[in-house]
């Protein structure tokens, strides 16, 4: 399933990608598999995970789906165990699962919504450190990638607690990089600008109720990106592949903008 004539860049590696049933995660899982990795397609939506895994296998790659809720420690423990039982090791984990906040006034966000954002977008990293990092360390090291957002670096109004959760992801990335370096685990983050995924549609639904309003808002987002378009899942897959590969062996604690210049 190699995508080019060079040797596959993730040959022999085993990767978990969370939130891989859709959007960025699905593109990352597919790209990793094309580059020789065996991929665990981990998502809270089992049907979505199964679909993506079947697509990878159908294209000649190695993948299995595993249901997970990244906000639950026991669930992440099961994911780590499933991965080593299935593929014998664990080299890469992309903490990509996340949820959005609907754009709207800051005082309209209920405590339960705040807690859910933090549990899925931030506490998931705590569970990764507890359940995934020790397995990697025991195997001689690995790579953890955290999907952050350009909003961590250049927040937009109306999305305060989502922006905050992603700023925490960048902070956690640097601290995890320091504390896990002695275990030969590199930790980096990806900071994408808006992309046409179900998550973006959910975020916009707070501001737009008609198709025409959504199109106008989308055009506004696009106009704010110097390179003139939104992020594509393939942009994220390319950046994740580089950071996960041995070409990035000396990079850790890096929060890489994948944003067409939005945060300059
Ligand atoms: N799309 C954007 O505009 C955008 C911009 C910047 C950053 N991001 C970030 O990119 C990541 C992926 O987002 P996307 O746009 O591909 O979204 P998406 O909605 O297409 O996919 C997210 C996936 O995560 C899964 N998921 C949700 N909660 C989960 C949980 N608790 N456990 C396991 N899986 C869970 C969903 O089922 C879904 O398949 C998120 O972290 C998001 O914050 C997205």
Descriptive notes:
Helix 1 packs parallel to helix 2. The protein has a seven-stranded parallel beta sheet with strand order 3-2-1-4-5-6-7, sandwiched between helices. The chain has helices spanning 23-34, 46-58, 73-87, 111-131, 133-138, 160-180, 198-204, 211-223, 233-244; strands at residues 14-18, 38-43, 62-67, 92-95, 142-147, 185-192, 255-258. It contains nine helices and seven strands; from the N terminus they run E-H-E-H-E-H-E-H-H-E-H-E-H-H-H-E. Strand 1, helix 1 and strand 2 form a beta-alpha-beta unit. It has a single domain (14-193, 234-244, 252-257), classed as Rossmann fold (3-Layer(aba) Sandwich), CATH 3.40.50.
Protein topology:
Elements: E1 14-18, H1 23-34, E2 38-43, H2 46-58, E3 62-67, H3 73-87, E4 92-95, H4 111-131, H5 133-138, E5 142-147, H6 160-180, E6 185-192, H7 198-204, H8 211-223, H9 233-244, E7 255-258
Helix pairs in contact: 1-2, 1-9, 3-4, 4-6
Number of domains: 1
The stretches of 5 or more residues where confidence is low (pLDDT under 50) are none
Q: Mind describing the biggest β-sheet? A: 7 strands, parallel
**Secondary structure: helix percent:** 40-55%
Per CATH, what is the topology? Rossmann fold
Q: Work out the number of β strands.
A: 7
CATH class: Alpha Beta
């Amino acid at each position: 399933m190699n995508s080019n004539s060079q040797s596959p860049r993730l040959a022999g590696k085993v990767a978990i990608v969370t939130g891989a049933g859709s959007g960025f995660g699905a593109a990352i899982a597919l790209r990793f598999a094309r580059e020789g990795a065996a991929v665990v397609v981990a998502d809270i939506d089992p049907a979505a995970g199964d679909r993506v895994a079947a697509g990878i296998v159908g294209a000649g790659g190695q993948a299995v789906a595993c249901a997970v809720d990244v906000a639950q420690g026991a669930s992440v423990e099961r994911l780590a165990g499933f991965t080593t039982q299935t593929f014998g090791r664990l080299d890469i984990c992309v903490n990509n699962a996340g949820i959005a906040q609907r754009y709207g006034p800051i005082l309209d966000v209920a405590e339960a919504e705040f807690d859910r954002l933090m549990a899925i977008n931030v506490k998931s990293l705590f569970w990764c450190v507890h359940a995934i990092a020790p397995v990697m360390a025991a195997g001689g090291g690995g790579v953890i990638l955290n999907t952050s957002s350009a909003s961590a670096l250049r927040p937009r109004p109306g999305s305060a607690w989502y922006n905050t959760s992603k700023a925490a992801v960048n902070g956690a990335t640097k601290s995890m990089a320091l504390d896990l370096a002695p275990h030969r685990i590199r930790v980096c983050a990806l900071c994408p600008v808006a992309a046409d995924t179900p998550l973006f549609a959910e975020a916009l639904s707070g501001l737009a109720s008609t198709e025409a309003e959504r199109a106008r808002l989308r055009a506004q987002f696009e106009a704010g990106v110097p390179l003139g378009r939104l992020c594509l899942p393939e942009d994220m897959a390319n950046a994740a592949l580089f950071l996960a590969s041995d070409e990035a062996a000396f990079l850790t604690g890096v929060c890489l903008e994948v944003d067409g210049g939005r945060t300059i």
